[in-house]
């Protein structure tokens, strides 16, 4: 019952009565789910009578189980209200296609009411006998209620699906009118409002509903647009053409069997000016420009977020379209002139698009909706919501800020303890992405996340979850105070060392980078050495497949300043010749850290390390080359090491030339 809200008895009852009256006072019922909605309203009216009698009894102390029951009923009725409003204010045609899912949703609500009433102690409440009998009857009926799916809606839905699959010029207009009338679409205004609602649904489903869902909604938009032009043709022919489709494309599609590859995925009409968007998909310029200008920032077909808004002409496809137009005697100049006019208009709008207020508001609404699913959804819904936030937080500082402001972080932290592998992985990755925004680092730490993140790092359900936990620690440890906090957790550094041993190349790199950050704080150096990092890091230096040479060298160079670290490093016999080779073949950063290690070992390791350097024929040429051509830091340290080695040679009467 994690979604329950526990209020004081009086305020809980007031909220329940207010909410129930809001639901009961719905004036116009939706044109779909009529029976399920009307029976649900009757149940809520009976419950409202119960709430009012309990309130009038002025009982200062309600039994705890009744408060729990009322809290659950509040949660259920609130979701009933949301679903009813969706049926009433959303797309009727899309609701018709979703009729089985919506019916099941109402059935679940009734079962939840029954489960809440299971714990209602009616005998302990001061209510009339009449109300008790009504509630007992409601309880019995709710417990044995069966799923009801309106057979008429199923039949109409099947006809609608057939219409969607048909060519536009192949279906009967009267059939379309009958289907549309059945869901309340009777006037031109009804058709236009339905298209607007469908477009909102496309935006809602983009990135979450999948390609098939978005494609079906786009087919509905095209069907409504075409039906509008056919049904109301006699009244006003000029108003028949949707702005998104264009007059030429409309008449072309109606008169000719346009090849699918020449149709715009949005309007389903002939593409006059095909352009490619960032996702690689092609659309007609006017259609995709209108899509972008209304605040959408995803590819309508794939749901992929568009990393830029440039529209690149698809000249090859445009040439094929023009060839097809010529072969079918379609007026080419008309297509070209309309396309050119639309192109200029669209370019003005699209070329100046950036992170506009529309886009930010869209992200805000999305974030609030998804966080709501985190808070109140089932396990499956929470898993999906965490995944959506993971994707939304992947790019853009504004996105990361808005998601945090919507209250996502505490819920994500809690979900790190989930037993579901995907939920845990999505939650830790979402937190990693959010942590890139510096202020979110503070919020994540304030939410007590570090314990849960370390638990995932140590024993996460998937390797990806463990690796992303390491990356999150690296990100959080960018703030100096958090280096101390993270290092103080007894398992944080040992868990990073464990991932250094067991992870993939990416995981090893994330672990090494996190250790490098943490080791900037002196107290963490000793813990890193104690966790057995030194021999493992040296082993990784010798492993070509590990791919983390520079990161491993960086950690070793930091541990060198710790006495325990120096002792552990000195014990490695293969390290010195390995570092000499890295002076020659390593990256610029690798050379700097190699020379740092060699200089430190010579200073503290004395003649033994110097002797091993001097007897290696590659060491002096490599040092001399670095002293001449290396970075300023590398040159300085190479010269210092050459002087040190020269001093040892002078003492042995054999100076370096």
From TrEMBL:
Pathway noted in the entry: Protein modification; protein ubiquitination
GO BP term, example: cell surface receptor signaling pathway
Catalytic activity from the UniProt record: S-ubiquitinyl-[E2 ubiquitin-conjugating enzyme]-L-cysteine + [acceptor protein]-L-lysine = [E2 ubiquitin-conjugating enzyme]-L-cysteine + N(6)-ubiquitinyl-[acceptor protein]-L-lysine
Known EC number: 2.3.2.27
Positions annotated as ARM repeat: 407-449, 491-533
Boundaries of every U-box domain copy: 257-331
GO molecular function terms noted in the UniProt entry: transmembrane receptor protein serine/threonine kinase binding; ubiquitin protein ligase activity
Alphabetized UniProt keyword annotations: Repeat, Transferase, Ubl conjugation pathway
SMART domains referenced in this protein's UniProt entry, alphabetically: ARM, Ubox
PANTHER family: U BOX DOMAIN-CONTAINING, U-BOX DOMAIN-CONTAINING PROTEIN 1
Protein name per Swiss-Prot or TrEMBL: RING-type E3 ubiquitin transferase
Source organism per UniProt: Gossypium schwendimanii (Cotton)
Lineage, uppermost ranks: Eukaryota, Viridiplantae, Streptophyta, Embryophyta, Tracheophyta
